[in-house]
Amino acid sequence: MTTWTPEELGAVGEADELHIAPARTDGSFRRPIPIWVVRVGDGLYVRSYRGPDGGWYRQALRSGRARIEAGGVDREVAVTEPTTDVDTEIDEAYRAKYGRWSSYVLPMIAPPAVASTLRLEPAEPRTPAPHPTDPEEIS
Disordered: where is this region (predicted)? Predict the structure, then answer.
């Protein structure tokens, strides 16, 4: 299994924003969108501001993969629901890191967002299937 290097954990964990592009069913990636990311121990976690109704969240959970870019780190990740109860630690990490935007932090630690917590694990890149709009596929 691939693991984060200490440098990657630090760089992503300290970045103000993470750009996430969930994988589509054909293996290609959606357009990246900016979200917040927090580090708790050796884990990187994200939440959907809209909770389980967030489009990027639903796609990431369905595919289990995404491409992320933050703090100079650009790589594919496995996207999973946390297997241990780290919600309180993640809430505290959001408060500590993003507290200067208190009106935005409160929704990120509210039950809908907490229910959308995902853990990011480094993954080996996969070669996506060609997108149907690729010129090679049309001819």
Answer: 120-139
